[in-house]
Design brief:
The chain has 104 residues and is mainly beta. The protein has a single domain, classed as Thrombin, subunit H (Beta Barrel), CATH 2.40.10.220. 7% of the residues lie in helices and 51% in strands. A 6-stranded antiparallel beta barrel has the order 1-2-3-6-5-4. The longest helix is centred in the last third of the chain and has 7 residues, at 96-102. The chain is globular.
């Protein structure tokens, strides 16, 4: 039986638009989970692991679009959604502002 390993920080489910990744317009991309250390993105255009990315995010409650620097940790095809992928990213530095918006 596999032991449960608690996550280092809490994750929050969200449904925020990611309008661009690395300046490439991707209006069908969404942030679906976030923590102070990283996020899970659903997109039609994944980037390979270890790729540096800049996510342009419009979070509810934010006055302007936020640009967040991150690195791709993993990608996975979504079996029930044709040409859709999940991409895990970790932020290059902790992002307390996004975490605060997600936890309210």
């Amino acid at each position: 039986m596999k032991e449960f390993t608690p996550r280092r920080v809490p994750r929050h489910p969200v449904n925020w638009q990611v309008s661009a990744i690395n300046g490439q317009d991707l209006p069908d991309s969404r942030l679906v989970e976030i923590s102070v250390l990283g996020a899970r993105v659903e997109t039609s255009a994944p980037f390979p692991p270890r790729t540096s990315v800049v996510l342009s995010i419009m979070a509810p409650g934010a006055e302007t679009e936020m640009r967040v620097r991150a690195r791709v940790a993993w990608i996975s095809a979504m079996p029930n959604k044709l040409s859709r992928y999940q991409m895990g990213v970790y932020f290059l530095r902790p992002n307390w502002e996004l975490e605060k918006l997600a936890s309210h």
